[in-house]
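Hi all, long-time lurker, first post. I run a small reading group and we've been trying to get comfortable going from sequence to structure in the token notation. Rather than ask abstract questions, I figured I'd post a concrete chain and ask someone more experienced to write out its structure so we can walk through it together at our next meeting. Sequence below, copied exactly:
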Amino acid sequence: MKTYILCHMFDPYLRNPSFVFLYILLIQIQFQLSFSSQDMLILSLKTQLIPSGSVPRSPNKLPFHHNVSLTVSLTVGTPPQNVSMVLDTGSELSWLNCNKTRYNYPNSFDPNRSSSYNPVPCSSPTCTNGTQDFNIPASCDVNNLCHATLSYADASSSEGNLASENFFIGSSELPGLVFGCMDSTFSSNPGEDSKTTGLMGMNRGSLSFISQMGFPKFSYCISGIDFSGLLLLGDANLTWLAPLNYTPLIQISTPLPYFDRVAYTVQLEGIRVSDKLLPLPKSVFEPDHTGAGQTMVDSGTQFTFLLGPAYSALKTEFLNQTTNILKVLEDQSFAFQGAMDLCYRVPLNQSTLPELPSVSMVFRGAEMTVTSERLLYRVPGEVRGSDGVHCLTFGNSDLLGVEAYVIGHHHQQNVWMEFDLENSRIGLAQVRCDLAGQRFGVAS
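-- Answer (accepted) --
Happy to help. Here is the structure in token form:
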């Protein structure tokens, strides 16, 4: 099994193609990779060879810079065509815009130019069985081809035919991957969407990109200092890494209306503000009989969203512990992204925030602690007199109409995140992600 480490460059991308209203994390990979059992390549602005043995398993890697969103640049088809895809761990089906789109997508994929493009017939098991986790069932079009319709919470949508095609990560070919060749899209943000060709789904569904590639695990690490980072596909056996604390992935075999069975779902058991555990029963964090209330770890989400009772308790305690150090924004009509209504006024000439109480999310077997600048987010363009507006980076899922807890990537900075698909668990370890990048020779 080969191991890849892929670099990401982040650009703001506000399309929110997850089943909750979220910002998307995207990976920009622009490179030519060659694989060797003895050497590993570092890819940034130039290629540099690292001596063999410096890192186990000889992964290949690139740096990324993190802002809000992340895209992946690959080649697809025969002969290869360049495409740029949104990486979304909250979605299953990968798809590309195929020529006939509502907006002008300059990097659309042309299936007519590829000799390896094969549409999936609606009678195929891929269509009849492989799409069972889609929110909208696949259908049969007038040409007896498998037709998929994808709908997202921000009113974006995309539809077209399933097909198989050859994807390339550098010089490594991934033949016959199933994806959606979409000829009709509607976007809530066409200006940003026109910069990409489609979406790469990375959840646990059978048709997701990672499932079709067959990797047993993948990991990523996002720096909170210079926003560099890395993504690793495969098992690298990193002996230098601090021991990971694992929390099991929750699986429910029975289909429930509000439970996403192919999401990365863990069990949230409590929340602490500093050393104070919020007085909430564990039942608040457990899915009910409809499946509502699951906790998803999603690198495609920018911030973290909690269901109403948990959010209210956190808001009350955080307010109590910041009474004398922060000035509350007294504007009941304002809520950042419609869900973050605990905001503060901070003088524009104040370069650093005061020391803030930490917030820890307690999972079964692991914890994730959010500190300092990751707790408050400066809202762009919002000014009150001589003050800027900073909001707590936890939102209220109820205000979005979302029946779930979602742990976003903003709170995963400086945490090594390992998604162990083979053992159905997620591993966490506090690390300096900039130093981890240096271990791999990844430049900031």
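A couple of things your group might point at:
The mean pLDDT is 78.
The first strand starts at residue 4 and ends at 6.
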